[in-house]
Structure formats: C-alpha cells, structure tokens
Recover the amino acids of this structure.
C-alpha cells in the first residue's frame, strides 16, 4: 500500500490551495453575498460611546448571571435556535448524528465514515486514505448542523474547513453541505471540506458565537452561541447596579437612543441587510433571498409606510423561538395594524381575520437546506 498520510498531504498541498483559492471567496452560508468587515455588536458600540456611566468598562458575565432576575427570558432563550448555534463537535447531541453513519458524496470525494471522541468528530475516506482520520472541532447550527475545522495555513496562518457533509433537518439527514464549491478542489484537505479564509472565516464564527477570536487553530475567549450579551452587550455593570438597586439605570435596549433602526441593524448584522446582497439580486428578488428576512421586510409596504413602528420584535419576541410561537399569535400581530374597521390601516378584502401568513408571507424550501424560510417581503403576491 502506498497511501500518503493525510496530514503530510494536507501541509504540502494546502500551500497550493491558499494561492489558487485567493480569488473572490464566498461564505458557504451565503453563496452570493458581498463581504463585510467584522464589527462588534451594535449595542456594544453604543455602550462604548455612552457617557451615562463613567464606571468601569463593562465585561461579559455569561447568560447564567441573568437567570436570577430574568428567569422567563432565560428559559425561553434556552429553547431558541440562538442558544445552540455553535457547539463542540464532541457534544453527544452532535456526535450521535454522525457517528456510525456513512455518506457517499460521489466523485471526487467518496464515502465518508465517522467516529468521535472528546476532541471532536473524525471523518474517514477509506478508499483514499485508509484509517487516517480528519478531525472536525466545531459544529454550527441548531436544526441543520455543519462541521468546521481550523487548520494551519502557511500563507494566511489559519484556514477554516467546512465539512462537505451536513446533518440536514429533513428526511434523509446526512446530505451535501449547501453552497460548496467543487471546482477549486486541489488538495487532500479539500476532499474533506470547503476552505474559508480571512474575513469570511472570522465572520463565520462571529455570527454564531457571543465572544471569541480565531487565534491559530483555536478560538480564544470563546463564549459559544448567540447569547444575551451578544445582543445586549457586556452586562457586568448592569448586574452590579441591579444588585445595588431595584431600579437600575437604563441598559442596552432600554436606552433612549435605542430605536427601530438600532434593532434592524442588530438583527440584520447576522440575518443580512440589503448591503449584503448584490444589486442584481435586490432587483430580481430570487427565492433564496427569503433566507435574509431583513432584506424582505425593509421593502414591505408594512415597513415603508409605518414610520418606524414596524420592526422585528413587533412579530418576534427576540427571546422566544418561532417553534414556540403559535399561528394565532402571528395572525394577531398582523391584525394589530390591519383591523377591519380601522381608519389608519387597510384590512384584507379576502380574509380579514385569518390565514395571513400562508398568503402574504409563504414559506420557501431552499435547495439542500432542511429548514424553510418565510418571505418577509409582505405583499399581495402574483401567485395568490
Ligand atoms: C450574532 C448573530 C445573530 C444576531 C445578532 C441575531 N441572530 Fe437570529 N439567528 C442567528 C443564527 C446563527 C441563527 C440560526 C440558529 C440555528 O438554528 O442554528 C438564528 C436564528 C434565528 C431565528 C430562528 C430560530 C428560532 O429558534 O426561532 C429567529 C426567529 C431569529 N434568529 C430572529 C432574530 C432576531 C429577531 C434578531 C434581532 C433581535 C436576531 N435574530 C439577531 C444569528 C443571529
Ligand atoms: C453574516 C452572518 C453569518 C455568517 C457569516 C455565517 N452564518 Fe450561518 N447562519 C446565520 C444565520 C442568521 C442563520 C439562520 C438563518 C439561516 O439559516 O440562514 C445561520 C444558519 C446556519 C446554519 C443552519 C442552522 C439551522 O438550524 O438550520 C448552519 C449549519 C450555519 N449557519 C453554518 C455556517 C457556517 C459553517 C458558516 C461559515 C462558513 C456560516 N454559517 C456563516 C448567520 C451567519
Ligand atoms: C437576538 C438578540 C437578543 C438576545 C440573544 C437576547 N435579547 Fe433580550 N432583548 C432583545 C431586544 C431586541 C429587546 C427589546 C425588545 C423590544 O423592544 O420589545 C430585548 C429585551 C430584553 C429585556 C427587556 C424586555 C423584557 O423582555 O423583559 C430584557 C430583561 C432582556 N431582553 C433580557 C435578556 C436576557 C436575560 C437574555 C438571555 C437569556 C436576552 N435578553 C437575550 C434582544 C435579545
Ligand atoms: C440582580 C438582578 C438583575 C440581574 C442579575 C440582571 N438584571 Fe437585567 N434588569 C434588572 C432590573 C431590575 C431591570 C429593570 C426592570 C426590568 O425591565 O425588569 C433590568 C432590565 C434589563 C434590561 C432592559 C433594559 C432596560 O433599561 O429596561 C435588559 C436588556 C437586561 N436587564 C438584560 C440583562 C442581562 C443580559 C442580564 C445577564 C447578563 C441581566 N439583565 C441581569 C435586574 C437584573
Ligand atoms: C405596524 C403595523 C403593521 C403590521 C404589524 C403589519 N402591517 Fe401590513 N401594512 C402596514 C401599512 C402601514 C401598510 C400600507 C397600507 C396601509 O396603510 O394599511 C401595509 C400594507 C400591507 C399589505 C399590502 C401591501 C402592498 O404591497 O400593497 C399587505 C398584504 C399587508 N400589509 C399584510 C400584512 C400581514 C400579512 C401582516 C402580518 C404578517 C402585516 N401586514 C403586519 C402596516 C402593518
Ligand atoms: C410582520 C411580522 C414579522 C416581522 C416584522 C418579522 N417577522 Fe420574522 N417571521 C414572521 C413569521 C410569521 C415567521 C414564521 C414563523 C413560523 O415559522 O411559525 C417568521 C420567521 C422568521 C425566521 C425563521 C426562518 C423563517 O424565515 O421562517 C427568522 C430568522 C425571522 N423571522 C427573522 C426576522 C427578522 C430578523 C426580522 C426583522 C428584520 C423579522 N423576522 C421581522 C413574521 C415577522
Ligand atoms: C387566501 C389568501 C389570503 C389570506 C388568508 C389573507 N389574504 Fe390578505 N389579500 C389576499 C389577496 C388576494 C389580496 C388582494 C385583494 C385585491 O386586491 O382585491 C389581499 C389584500 C390584502 C391587503 C391589502 C388591502 C388593500 O386594500 O390594499 C392587506 C392589508 C391584507 N391582505 C392583509 C391580510 C391580513 C392581515 C390577513 C390575515 C388576517 C390576510 N390578508 C389574509 C389574500 C389573502
């Protein structure tokens, strides 16, 4: 047998990989978006310019610290997708989905098999590399799960490799990761995953964690998942002041300068804003834009004609998962404005009290993604 060891092959070949793959790169998550810089959450930026509290620079204290005084939000958030969107691949809830299974990805890849230990999930391509395993450290996603590995890269220091197979929230489960590019396949490591470099790699982690920076092949200072303080900013001062007084000063979304625009920027930082998609896509509005809810919402007459009254939290409790929100509540959200005998808003001539979402915000199943997405461009549709 004359098989190259995987590790050696990767080190040699990755040099070629990082040179050849240095053209325009795209995130596997958003195949057609433009790049944007990694910025701190908006609330953190606001916290930094606030002059109200000359006290110590606030630090992150973790979501556990919120339980005592905000038990309802704490519990709801625990069931939200935000609370499990970045895990160690060795987490049993993740590992159990891969271990013992195999997936034939066809040429040029072959059949992946999996095992795990406390270091992560290990994939093998037996036909090519025998028993040599390839390790994935991290698992992104809640319902659908993609594995990620950080590897040394001689040019850029680190490359993020997104596994070519994902757990898809659908009937077949293991499937090809959406948005993968085969054409740049030029090294052994890329048989296991699609490479991401630089800003794309950093942003991939940024959107799925509360704190953490990629340093070498590790994530330093990691607080996984989209937790309370990702949206509200570091809360040590708030906790200190709330323990000292039953009426702590305004914090985060309680500040007077927090408005609809602040919220759209906060949610849109991860769920995407119009600036993150191309001009052509904005014109054509293909179905895949339903994945980027703020883009649709911002072009809805409901938003445009509401003078700042309509925002994400008009319909979403930001702490409560959509899976825990009933259809009745969603209709209520619409009817709050579109009442039948209201002077200020028009009502539906077809169905004034029921079924709004199916007709005006239908769900789309996108290729290869298990979850469906509701078109947030609320409108009377041609297909109705
Ligand atoms: C730091 C990035 C980030 C920010 C900021 C963010 N989200 Fe999310 N959101 C995510 C990610 C990642 C997921 C996918 C979670 C998963 O399933 O793995 C998600 C999922 C969701 C879901 C579907 C999952 C569920 O359980 O309901 C809703 C609804 C949602 N976000 C609404 C919001 C709203 C509203 C805001 C603003 C108040 C917001 N998000 C801000 C990253 C973010
Ligand atoms: C700009 C922020 C952003 C970036 C960059 C990003 N994601 Fe996401 N990701 C999200 C949001 C928001 C969602 C939830 C909505 C969706 O599925 O589009 C999500 C959803 C997911 C899901 C599906 C979760 C589910 O429950 O169905 C996976 C898997 C995932 N991302 C992996 C990745 C990987 C791997 C990368 C990097 C290569 C990445 N993401 C880059 C924001 C981001
Ligand atoms: C995805 C972003 C996001 C996350 C994560 C998040 N929040 Fe919030 N939170 C918001 C927004 C936006 C508002 C303002 C809602 C409004 O204007 O109606 C808010 C409001 C609040 C409020 C005041 C209103 C209320 O519901 O009592 C509290 C308290 C709060 N959050 C605590 C928490 C705690 C505790 C956690 C974690 C367990 C958390 N939040 C996680 C975005 C978030
Ligand atoms: C010792 C009690 C205590 C702890 C711990 C605490 N809070 Fe609060 N928080 C309060 C009180 C009291 C208020 C004001 C009344 C209210 O809205 O419930 C408040 C309000 C808020 C608000 C609304 C902002 C405003 O000005 O109205 C947010 C957001 C918030 N807390 C987030 C958090 C987060 C995130 C944590 C955990 C990191 C946390 N809190 C921990 C007591 C606490
Ligand atoms: C904050 C108030 C508000 C909410 C909530 C709201 N809308 Fe609207 N919507 C408006 C306004 C304002 C218009 C412009 C017409 C008018 O003045 O009523 C509008 C227009 C519309 C139109 C006509 C669009 C067009 O292109 O002509 C439809 C359809 C619609 N809304 C459906 C919905 C549905 C369905 C929901 C719930 C998912 C909803 N709206 C929630 C304020 C709202
Ligand atoms: C007028 C009401 C309304 C507004 C405003 C709204 N949403 Fe939604 N959203 C919905 C409904 C209805 C669903 C479908 C819920 C379900 O699956 O049961 C949904 C679902 C979602 C989901 C889950 C994936 C999907 O598309 O089905 C995400 C993520 C989301 N919304 C993000 C946002 C963000 C971010 C904003 C603000 C830019 C926002 N929404 C504003 C009504 C709204
Ligand atoms: C069976 C599909 C269906 C359902 C269910 C439905 N609508 Fe409509 N809606 C329509 C159609 C079709 C039109 C366009 C009617 C026309 O132009 O004559 C419309 C028009 C509207 C308009 C614009 C009215 C105007 O005068 O410009 C609003 C607002 C609206 N719907 C809101 C809602 C709300 C809110 C709900 C839920 C309570 C709802 N719709 C349920 C199909 C539906």
């Amino acid at each position: 047998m004359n098989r190259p060891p995987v590790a050696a092959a990767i080190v040699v070949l990755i040099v070629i990989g990082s040179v050849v793959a240095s053209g325009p790169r795209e995130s596997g998550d958003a195949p057609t978006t433009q790049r944007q810089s990694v910025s701190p959450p908006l609330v953190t930026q606001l916290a930094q310019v606030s002059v109200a509290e000359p006290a110590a620079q606030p630090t992150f204290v973790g979501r556990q610290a919120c339980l005592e005084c905000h038990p309802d939000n704490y519990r709801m958030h625990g069931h939200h997708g935000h609370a499990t969107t970045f895990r160690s691949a060795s987490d049993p809830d993740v590992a159990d989905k891969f271990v013992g299974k195999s997936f034939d990805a066809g040429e040029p890849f072959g059949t992946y098999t999996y095992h795990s230990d406390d270091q992560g999930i290990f994939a093998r391509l037996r036909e090519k590399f025998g028993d040599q395993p390839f390790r994935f450290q991290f698992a992104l996603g809640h319902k659908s799960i993609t594995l990620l590995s950080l590897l040394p890269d001689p040019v850029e220091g680190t490359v993020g490799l997104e596994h070519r197979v994902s757990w898809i929230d659908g009937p077949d489960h293991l499937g090809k990761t959406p948005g993968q590019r085969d054409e740049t396949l030029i090294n052994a490591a890329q048989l296991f995953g699609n490479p991401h470099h630089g800003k794309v790699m950093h942003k991939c982690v940024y959107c799925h964690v509360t704190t953490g920076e990629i340093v070498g092949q590790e994530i330093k200072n990691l607080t996984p998942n989209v937790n309370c303080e990702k949206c509200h900013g570091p809360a040590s001062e708030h906790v200190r002041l709330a323990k000292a007084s039953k009426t702590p000063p305004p914090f985060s979304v309680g500040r007077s300068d927090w408005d609809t625009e602040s919220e759209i920027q906060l949610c849109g930082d991860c769920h995407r804003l119009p600036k993150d998609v191309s001009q052509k896509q904005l014109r054509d509005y293909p179905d895949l834009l339903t994945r980027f809810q703020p883009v649709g919402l911002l072009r809805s007459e409901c938003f445009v004609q509401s003078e700042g009254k309509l925002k994400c939290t008009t319909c979403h409790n930001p702490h409560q998962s959509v899976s825990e929100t009933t259809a009745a509540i969603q209709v209520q959200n619409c009817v709050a404005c579109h009442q039948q005998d209201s002077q200020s808003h028009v009502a539906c001539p077809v169905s004034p009290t029921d079924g709004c979402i199916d007709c005006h915000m239908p769900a789309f199943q996108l290729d290869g993604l298990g979850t469906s997405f509701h078109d947030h461009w609320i409108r009377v549709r041609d297909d109705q």
